[in-house]
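Supplementary Text 2. Reproducibility record for the structural model of the 141-residue chain.

All settings were left at their defaults, and a single model was retained for analysis rather than an ensemble. We include the record here because the model underlies the residue-level annotations in Supplementary Table 4.
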Amino acid sequence: MLRVSVLCQGRLKEPYYIAACQEYLKRLGAYCKAEVTELTEDGDVAGRIPKGAYVIALCIEGEKFSSPALARQLEKLASAGVSRICFLIGGSEGLPPAAKQAADLRLSMSDMTFPHHLARVMLLEQLYRALSINAGAKYHK
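Retained model, structure tokens:
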């Protein structure tokens, strides 16, 4: 089963963000083993990447994918034997350069700027959507 780690600088405080993340983590359980690790805003993200993980850093200068394209990318990784993926989400100042350099892929959600707390919810939802697309489920419309 695919293992997904999300390393985040900063902690969620708002109950609505926490509830949304918990909901998508629950839903993801049908497709993968997902975990979120919160670090301090200045925490060492690159040093916490699980060994052997394919690393995807969320940053504005990254590549943009549609939901179906993200699904295809995850399927491509699975076909190549990748069983562990680690997503990196920076804090209010973004990811440190070392974390970006450790990435196998840089991913941008949009040209717009979003709060890092919301980016976490958006990432979990898009992962759920992509994995449900790959499984042939009806979530994606």
